[in-house]
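Catalogue entry: protein
Contents: sequence, fold tokens
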Amino acid sequence: MADDTSAPAGRDMPRPAGGDDPGRVVTCDLAFDIQEPADIALQVVAAERGGRTLEERLNLATGGTPLPPPVELAAPHGGRIHLLRVPRGLFTASYRAHLERPHPRPASRPDGTAGAEPLDLQRLTYLRPSRYCPSDHVVGIAVAEFGALPQGRPRVDAITDWIHHRIGYVAGASTVHDTAEDTLLTGQGVCRDFAHLGVTLCRALGIPARFTAVYAPGLTPMDFHAVFEAWTGGAWHLHDPTRRVPRDSLIRIATGRDAADTALATVLAGIATLRSIEVTATVTGLLPADDHRAEAVLA
């Protein structure tokens, strides 16, 4: 784990402090063994849309020596990617942030449908099959299970309920190579598999859906978490088939077609092996209640 008291490496990101607020505090500590100099893309910092940042710090070091500041790229939906070149040795990345709770988001149409709103490029992107979400392969089961339901949110709610009740949450049950098809066949998985299956079934029914990596206060055991968002009623609504955390506590990190777009660290060149990872996410005060059937929108 990186030392909080060390000189900041990469990017020191203080923000003005505010008064008392029902905020969120998140941390992430990563350690990699770098066998050959590596180009790495990190996606661990909170997205810009996740609420006003009161304080934020990203420390990057190899063998305790701070690294030069990384390049920050703006990713879709407020995400931030940090690109850096890492020499051989033990590489550590330490992230700390205190975020204000986001303001309430606008509600959708009362009927929960998308109406006659034309597709834009973003929603078209999230209708297409992707690496972990081969929606074109599961149209039959999607139509058989959910095709008789009213279009829009009723179908997505039914998909979320179906996954929650039919798929077992089993730690270690899947690998990074498993797709939503594998989850359907085995009937078990972890949060990324639940989210991939939700995305896949929605797309198979013509509902744009996207995969979102988040910090999740209240998650046990603590780790990164994955959920999905579906376009209904003129907005991206948040769904978590695992129902393991209150959705109102979540902090967006990265959003994309599936987990391939939202990996916490991608080795672009060189050789690097993840040695350890430790994540924390808390709220100041009590965790919000969530019945998981009410409307929710992630900032």
